[in-house]
TrEMBL record:
Name the record gives this protein: VWFA domain-containing protein
Origin species: Scophthalmus maximus (Turbot)
Keyword S-adenosyl-L-methionine set for record: no
Function, as annotated: Collagen VI acts as a cell-binding protein.
Gene3D superfamilies in UniProt: von Willebrand factor, type A domain
Phylogenetic placement of the source organism: Eukaryota, Metazoa, Chordata, Craniata, Vertebrata
Gene: LOC118282543
A molecular function GO annotation: extracellular matrix structural constituent conferring tensile strength
Domain VWFA: 21-208, 224-406
GO cellular component: collagen trimer
Alphabetic keyword roster: Collagen, Signal
SMART domains: VWA (SM00327)
Amino acid sequence: MTYIRETCGCCDCEKRCGALDIVFVIDSSESVGLTNFTLEKNFVINTINRMGSMASDPTSPTGTRVGVVQFSHNGTFEAVHLDDPNINSMAAFKMAVKNLKWIAGGTFTPSALKFAYDTLIKNSKRARAKVSVVVITDGRFDPRDDEDLLRYLCDDDNVVVNAIGVGDMFKREQDDEILGSIACGNKKRVTEMKRYVDLVAEDFIETMETVLCPGEHYLSNTLDLVFLLDGSERLGTENFQHVREFVQKASERLGLAQSSTDRMRARMALVEFGKESENHIAFPLTHDPALIADGIARMPYLDSSSSVGPAIIHAIDNVLGKGNARQTRHEAEVSFVFITDGVTGSSNLEEAVSAMRGAQVVSTVIATGSDIDQEVLMKLAMSDPDAIFKGKDLSDLSRSSFFDRFIRWVC
């Protein structure tokens, strides 16, 4: 399955943020320094890496477009334009950003904001596109510049400005008032940090991903996805809640089928298992967000022993169905996602794995902690080590880095 995913791309899904224009305005003045300027560029690239694919046609009314302005003293501003026909892929954008050279001059921040709007945004705005601007600077600017221009972007209600102030290489504190003006007086959109290296920290990149694309979802090919949760006493009530939140998040981010007759996109089911005869179907295969949310909310914590083999057979018989009672769609990839540490009874396990193969199920395993049974996990993953997702604990499940990797794998 790993080979198929990596070569034909048939199981890939794509993150979608809607029609979105993002403009980064980055400080290239002398006080920033070459190393920190490189960190700014890496921040831009790492952030956009998380935003899904870019619009292949910059004139398209949909998709994500990205522009960059680097600024120093007046007359030195340089830009990667939103509507540049040569910026039609992630690779082209990365190359354009990497080619920006540190200017190492003065700091004309207000004029740079005017330049960003007049040159990149004003005449290339798309009717349905949200415009987000991210400004990175140490906050101060040359007194010869026009301070009134700090709020230049605020005159357009369709533009949202985020200001990131970083203490410069001389360890001086950024000017909070100036940052507040850049962010149009919205303190929630001002971020302060002491070091430029913090720009590329995983947690901060995750935060910016949410800020720029808060309602993102993933569009899959035809997918019928069944979660099988080990609800044994080893899980614990706190981790049980983490899993519920994870499944809920997956339902919100996957592109669910739009109707019962939709032959594309995803449907989901959730089965919690405990001891051999204890299997609880929280909700069957469905595209209905309300049914999914209600099933998750009502799902009890079994808090018993664990027997995964009978649970697999129960899911195949009662969730997937057989023969004329088959509930899966003809074109769908059928995927089982096990959330377990593998410490489970061995009853019927070999028979269950064989049944999965017979039902053409693709399996994925999520396991956390150090106390796991690797042999059982490998059986559940049908001998594919790449299909086993490991985390330190179950609170990791909803972290963007883990979650995105998992979603891209299953869909």
